[in-house]
Amino acid sequence: MPPVRVVSLEHVAAILKAIDLEDVLVSQAKAFHAYSAKVTQTPNRITLGTPAHSTLIMPSRIDTLTSAIKIVSVPKTDSKNGLPGVTLVLDNETAEPRGLVNARLLTAVRTAAGSALATRAIFNNNNSLMKAGDSLTLVVFGAGAQAKSHVQLLLHVLPQIRKVVICNRTLPRAQELVKDLGSQSQYAGVEIVAFCISTGESTGPISSSQISGQQPKEQLKHIVQIADVICTCTNSREALFPGEWETGQDSILAELGQIFDEHGQLSHAALPPEFITVTKSDVTPTDVNRKDVTIFKSVGIAAQDVAITALVLDKAEEMNLGAVVDF
Ligand SMILES: NC(=O)c1ccc[n+]([C@@H]2O[C@H](COP(=O)([O-])OP(=O)(O)OC[C@H]3O[C@@H](n4cnc5c(N)ncnc54)[C@H](OP(=O)(O)O)[C@@H]3O)[C@@H](O)[C@H]2O)c1
Predict the structure, then answer these.
(1) CA of 70 to the centre of ligand 1 (A)
(2) Which of 75, 105, 172, 303 is close enough to 40 for a disulfide, judged by CB 3.0 to 4.6 Å?
(3) InterPro entries, alphabetically (predicted)?
């Protein structure tokens, strides 16, 4: 049997640093295209319950690429350690195991790539969103793995973003993220500020308007109103801001986080309820009355996992990273 390549978290992180983000976006666009062309297979996922986690087992196949099985354990309580996960990739010809890749960072990257592709498509298709010389403001709720990937991929697809406001319920994690992003040379021209939703503290000026002396809620309202793109990347089951705050400046919202509870019922989502329409078989967060706000529900599909893991495995081979194990 041919050897199997085992790619650790550390090596996935090194590959993500070296990889061209455009290659990530192309891999994800191809996964969405394959899904639309009905050349993917994704059986229902299997869930195993443990006292502390729900372990999700998710097989999927892109006929034109390969098959993979991702296993992710979602903690039942808040965890600062992200989601433990691994993906087994099979060889497309022989169906033998080809690689075992740490999935912890990749889920965030593939989900953010979906949001970024949608945002780029929306901007490309709507001239009123972007005028020459405009600079854009991105507002991200949350400061975890998803928030970081969303900032990175949104800055890649929309280089017109000159300001990023990270709104988190606690300040230290948002500060850490600002420091981390600020240390990366490619973001040198972007002003990145942390804002604490509960106390109103921030690490820098939010806008030219004097809002720092105002109540946290008033400051947050101002932040929502200056945003061109908002990404809600939290575990919140309650609306993060009231819908009427969005005053119609042609903005885009990308939302992730839980929308169904474990029984498949619609649960409280992070977006204001007036942005969400329930259709027969799905929850489609579109705005029926508000033509000025476009919403992309960034759930992610299993085919994206197949594509991102195959890409990372190819790159690991190219860079000779990971342990090659006789099987
Ligand atoms: N759709 C998908 O494909 C997909 C994929 C992966 C993850 N997700 C979902 O995306 C969300 C974020 O994931 P992540 O990996 O970034 O998580 P994470 O690293 O644990 O970060 C969670 C963030 O949400 C904030 N938060 C938690 N509970 C909150 C609440 N009740 N109100 C306001 N903020 C709250 C936390 O704030 P503090 O720093 O103050 O704790 C933190 O900034 C999760 O719901 C996750 O399940 C979705």
Answers:
(1) 20
(2) 303
(3) NAD(P)-bd_dom_sf, ODC_Mu_crystall, ODC_N
Residue 47 three-state SS: strand
Strands (E), the chain: 4-7, 40-41, 46-49, 53-62, 66-75, 85-90, 97-102, 136-141, 161-168, 191-196, 229-232, 251-255, 277-278, 283-284, 293-297, 323-325
Q: Looking at the structure, tell me whether residues 199 and 249 fall in a common domain.
A: yes
Distance 80 CA to ligand 1 centre (A): 10
CA distances, 176 to each of 124, 142, 144, 179, 192 (Å) = 33, 12, 10, 5, 12
Q: Is the CB of 146 under 6 A from ligand 1?
A: yes
Same domain, 140 and 254: yes
**Structural domain of residue 140, as residue ranges?**
111-297
Q: How many whole angstroms from 321 Cα to the centroid of ligand 1?
A: 30
Mean pLDDT of the chain: 84
> How many independent structural domains does the chain possess?
2
Residues 99 and 86 in one domain: yes
Q: What count of Cα atoms within 13 Å lies in the side-chain half-sphere of residue 31?
A: 29
Instruction: Report the CATH number at residue 70.
Output: 3.30.1780.10
Q: Which of 169, 197, 262, 301 to mutate to test the pocket of ligand 1 (most atoms within 8 A of CB)?
A: 169
Residues 234 and 161 in one domain: yes
- Of the candidates 299, 156, 142, which has an alpha carbon nearest to the alpha carbon of residue 234? 142
* 124 plus 235 within the same structural domain: yes
**pLDDT per residue as tens digits for the range 176-211:** 999 999 999 899 999 999 999 999 999 998 877 767
Among 230, 299, 296, residue whose Cα is nearest residue 260 = 299
The answer for residues whose C-beta is within 8 angstroms of residue 16's C-beta and 6 or more apart is 105, 109, 312
